[in-house]
Design a protein that fits this description.
This protein has 545 residues and is of the alpha+beta class. The chain has two domains: 275 residues, Alkaline Phosphatase, subunit A (3-Layer(aba) Sandwich), CATH 3.40.720; 219 residues, Jelly Rolls, CATH 2.60.120.200. Helices cover 19% and strands 28% of the residues. The protein has twelve helices and 25 strands. The strands form three sheets. The protein has a nine-stranded mixed beta sheet, with helices on both faces. It has a nine-stranded antiparallel beta sheet with strand order 16-15-14-13-20-11-25-24-23, with no helix packed on it. The longest helix has 22 residues.
């Protein structure tokens, strides 16, 4: 099944990738243009005349306050953008230097592309030769020039080649201007430098649209500033003026909207995820939902489904549960880790228990859709990514009581809120948590597993939806329930904030490039970005065949 960022010189990176891999929804060849800009401050695009960039904004998801990273240097910014990991991993923390890099462990996305799809022809056209020799060394063709104009002309030339696979383009003159006069909009020289870059952006768009095979190509265009700058032009590397940067992901599969960060989640309506940390201390982080006196307590028939991205866990911590998991025969249920896979354990007040699970890998760095369908007097069936992976015939009687003595249903914990199997809580990310007091059919699970905003849909079991945590709205400690039943969750402890208040970051570039080309990021790569897609099929959750 088809389951889915001031200093030194200003770069504009263009990464033109012509992939041969297509999604099932289209037969067009996937190609990508990534524009990375060192030194474009977050207010410049809205102030300067930038019609070329404006067209990108109109056709995609964007933020003028994306996260470049710390330290905010050109070298570290390029390392972050191309490797897909932050400086604490890739090791580049010195201005104008790539010393200390760990590119052997965290290689450039160019290397990832060539490894996964060696037939894609890659070219790198740069001002800084180190970008070619240290990051893009896997490119088939590498070019280095003394001026932006030469770089631009070569890029246009390459775009005329029908077999071009990947072209990396680096422009430097806008950052050189910012270094000389300051990164400030009252300096005409700086504004004009930004506008010149916009001319290049527009020209590259025109070159793409003029390609002979354009009608049969599916282009995404990404633009990201690798860092901003101070008004003095002197780098400090950690100021908001340097860290806040514009980032644009433009393409048919992207939502057409401005991304706005929140105080808790790194993204607004983009990832919509809640991540619970693996903590070796006694500090627990989890979400609890009061269920006393609600339809969620002692359910005789239910479907629990959610998207999960499991971290490395030990023992058998609970993903979702209301029971005391220290004894398997205690009444209630828990969905928990089980070896490399997962399972549901459920029991009645007479301690008659069942364990039904999946042996399919879960801690592989990918998002998976998990579902459990329980009908007390009939069956318990478990699904992973829409596929039935386990089933058990049940012998419970209609009068059997399935009620846990605890009044909370918890995410990342069991009903006691104190389970510490392996670690104080399950480590991982949740999205689209739904509990139905009905047994959904296998076909219904498959039909609706990717759909958002279930409360406004024509879902055949809509009336039985009693908990719906989209993770779209987390205010303080309140996790909003969108089922209409008022079963809001409460965040206990602190969920992870990769970079608070930022809706998108440089680390997102690489993984989105790979995703557009149909190259699935392996969990062992350690990439930190997330995929921002709306319709192929669901922005986060493309599960492999």
């Amino acid at each position: 099944m088809n389951c889915f960022f001031k200093y030194s010189f200003l770069f504009l990176a263009v990464f033109l990738i012509a992939g041969q891999v297509s999604y099932a929804q289209t037969d067009k060849t996937k190609k990508i243009l990534v524009i990375g800009v060192d030194g474009i401050i977050n207010t410049a695009i809205d102030y300067a005349a930038t019609p070329g960039i404006g067209r990108l904004k109109a056709n995609g998801s964007y933020s003028m306050n994306g996260y470049g990273g710390v330290p905010a240097y050109s070298s570290s910014g390029w390392a972050t953008m191309l490797t897909g990991v932050s400086a604490d991993k890739h090791g580049v923390t010195v201005n104008k230097s790539f010393s200390g890099n760990k590119f052997a462990q965290y290689p450039s996305m160019v290397s990832r592309i060539k490894s996964a799809a060696p037939t894609i022809v890659v070219a790198s056209v740069v001002r800084n030769p180190e970008v070619n020799t240290l990051l893009n060394q896997a490119a088939d063709n590498k070019f280095q020039f003394a001026s932006d104009e030469e770089v631009y002309n070569k890029s246009v030339e390459l775009l005329k080649q029908s077999d071009v696979g990947a072209v990396f383009v680096q422009f430097s003159s806008p950052a050189e201007t910012g270094e000389a006069v300051g990164f400030q909009l009252r300096q005409a020289q700086y504004v004009l430098a930004v506008q010149k870059i916009d001319e290049y952006v527009a020209g590259l768009q025109t070159a793409i649209q003029s390609r002979t095979g354009y009608a049969n190509e599916d282009w995404n265009i990404f633009l990201a500033s690798t860092h901003g700058g101070t008004e003095s032009g002197i780098p400090q590397s950690t100021t908001p003026e340097e860290i806040n940067v514009p980032i644009i992901f433009s393409g048919a599969e992207m939502d057409k909207k401005e991304l706005i960060g929140t105080s808790l989640a790194p993204r607004e309506n983009a990832d919509n995820i809640l991540t619970l940390n693996k903590n070796p201390t006694n500090d627990r982080t989890y979400v609890r939902i009061p269920i006393n006196g609600t339809a969620l307590q002692g359910m005789n028939k239910f479907t629990i489904e959610f998207w999960a991205k499991a971290g490395p866990n030990g023992s058998d911590p609970s993903f979702i549960g209301d029971k005391d998991w220290d004894s398997r025969g205690n009444p209630g249920y828990t969905i928990c880790r089980s070896g490399p896979g997962w399972k549901i354990n459920i029991a009645n007040t007479k301690r008659e228990r069942y364990d039904v699970g999946s042996s399919k890998p879960l801690e592989d760095g990918n998002w998976h859709h998990l579902a459990v369908v329980f009908d007390k007097t009939r069956l318990c069936t478990v699904y992973q990514d829409g596929e039935k992976v386990g089933e058990s015939v049940l012998t419970y009687k209609a009068a059997d009581d399935m009620t846990s003595p605890f009044n909370y249903l918890c995410l990342g914990q069991d009903g006691t809120q104190t389970y510490s199997g392996g670690y104080p809580n399950w480590a991982g990310s949740f999205n689209e948590v739904r509990i139905w007091t009905d047994a959904l059919s296998e076909q219904t699970i498959r039909d609706y597993m990717y759909l958002r905003n279930i409360e406004n849909s024509g879902h055949p079991n809509r009336a039985s939806l009693n908990l719906y945590l989209k993770m779209d709205e987390v205010r303080g400690s309140v996790v909003k329930d969108f089922s209409g039943k008022g079963n809001n969750g409460e965040l206990i402890g602190a969920a992870s904030e990769r970079h608070p208040y930022y809706p998108i970051g440089l680390t997102d570039v690489a993984v989105n490039v790979l995703s557009h080309l149909g190259i699935r990021a392996d969990g062992t790569w350690g990439l930190e970005g997330s995929v921002l897609k709306s319709n192929v099929p669901y922005r986060l959750f493309k599960v492999p065949n």
